[in-house]
Design brief:
binds pyridoxal-5'-phosphate, TIM Barrel, Lyase, Ornithine Decarboxylase, Chain A, domain 1
């Protein structure tokens, strides 16, 4: 186990433990869904969904990932500084400010608008780099990024004109409702059949469209379906994000396809208070003792990514048991009700508390915290702040 502590917070014992073996396991679970040569581009944007991009990138390359995906040019630069030399697709726009860095670092632009092509042309003329590999993104209904389908002929003309400087390696789109793929996948099917026509206009390039939920829900059905145009049956590439980090990307347990949660958040009791019935806990107060109680203080707050919306709602794990969080979550701390646990055996300062992950037979998932906080697991994972030291299991 190595302790990164590069964030400077190396005294505190509140850690996010990242199991890189599970990153590899989860990548392989996606790879097992599709024929061998299918394009798979695991997403390591947003610091690998809060897990540490350089470490996750190394684990993914080790597991066989040929491509990695980021949102920002800066994220691509971070991977290069960390020593990654493989293909990295940048899904966010290259603009006049970032196109040069994109080309200098040999990152692969996923271009979604004409002004990005202009920025790349200028950067390419200035730097005189070798032929640039590009992907085009198309808008098939999400209305976020992407060329419109009717722009295909113009883009093809551009490619012919610029053939010396640019090579199109892939076309893609992004699903906005990947887990609508039950029996009637109305949004995703519409997007994919629109995309199939676009893909048919670019017969020799990689086509990719499926995020984690799309991958587990649609891939198989699409390959078997007789209603899907032949052009769409060309193996559709995957771009799994959240599933790589072990969050269930689908609507039921089958969608787990062997995925395992990667991040655990662990800390410990730093203070104990014996309070009388009627005493209050934390700001507000939003919790009042209904009996004489033992209150434990946990050094982890909303500035660490434990959301204030969890106040009086979440559980933590101690001694393999669920314990109630009580009172309002503070910036650096929250409190838990240790009355019953302490009655069994007195609780001591320093005892381990698990906020996310497994302990004994119990488990707290990012999904559970997200539901309690009224958000999505993506926000829980990316929200674990840089104050929390990451520890890596390899
Ligand atoms: C373009 C693109 N592809 C793939 C993904 C991965 O999605 P998910 O994390 O739902 O698998 C994202 C994430 O939002 C994305 O923006």
């Amino acid at each position: 186990m190595t302790n990164r502590a590069s964030n400077g917070f190396h005294y505190r014992r509140s850690v996010a433990e990242i199991d890189l073996r599970r990153i590899e396991n989860n990548y392989r679970a996606f790879a097992a869904l599709v024929p061998e040569a299918t394009f798979i581009c695991p997403m390591v944007k947003a610091n690998a969904y809060g897990h540490g991009d350089n470490e996750v990138a190394k684990a993914l390359r080790h597991a066989g990932a040929k491509y990695l995906g980021v949102a920002l040019v800066e994220e691509g630069e971070t991977l290069r500084r960390g020593g990654d030399r493989g293909p990295v697709l940048v899904f966010g726009p290259a603009d006049m400010g970032s196109a040069e860095a994109m080309l200098r670092e040999n990152l692969t632009p996923v271009v979604s608008a004409w002004d990005q092509l202009e920025a790349l042309e200028i950067a390419h003329a200035e730097l005189g780099t070798s032929r640039v590999s590009l992907h085009f993104e198309f808008n098939t209904g999400m209305n976020r990024l992407g060329f419109e389908p009717h722009e295909v002929p113009k883009l093809k003309e551009w490619l012919v004109k610029m053939a010396k400087a640019y090579r199109l390696d892939g076309v893609c789109t992004h699903l906005f409702s990947g887990n609508d793929a039950g029996e009637a996948s109305k949004y995703s099917d519409a997007q994919l059949s629109c995309f199939a026509e676009i893909a048919a206009s670019f017969p020799d390039v990689i086509v990719h469209a499926l995020n984690s939920s799309g991958s587990v829900n649609i891939w198989k059905r699409l390959q078997d379906s007789k209603n899907v145009p032949a052009s769409a049956r060309k193996p559709l590439g995957l771009r799994p994000g959240i599933g790589i980090y072990g969050v269930n990307p689908g609507n039921d347990e089958n969608a787990m396809i062997g995925l395992k949660p990667v991040m655990s958040v662990k800390t410990h009791i730093i203070s104990l208070h014996r309070i009388a019935k009627g005493d209050n806990v934390s700001y507000g107060p939003s919790w009042t003792a209904e009996r004489d109680s033992v209150v434990g203080t946990v050094p982890f707050g909303y500035a660490d990514g434990y959301r204030r919306a969890l106040s009086n709602k979440a559980d933590v794990l101690m001694r393999g048991r669920r314990i109630k969080q009580i009172g309002t979550v503070c910036m650096d701390y929250f409190m838990i009700d240790l009355t019953d646990l302490d009655a069994e055996k007195p609780v001591k300062s320093g005892e381990e508390v698990v906020l996310l992950g497994e302990q004994g037979r119990e488990q707290i998932t990012a999904d559970e915290l997200a539901q309690l906080a009224g958000t999505i697991p993506y926000e829980i994972l990316t929200g674990i702040s840089d104050r929390v030291t990451k520890t890596y299991l390899k």
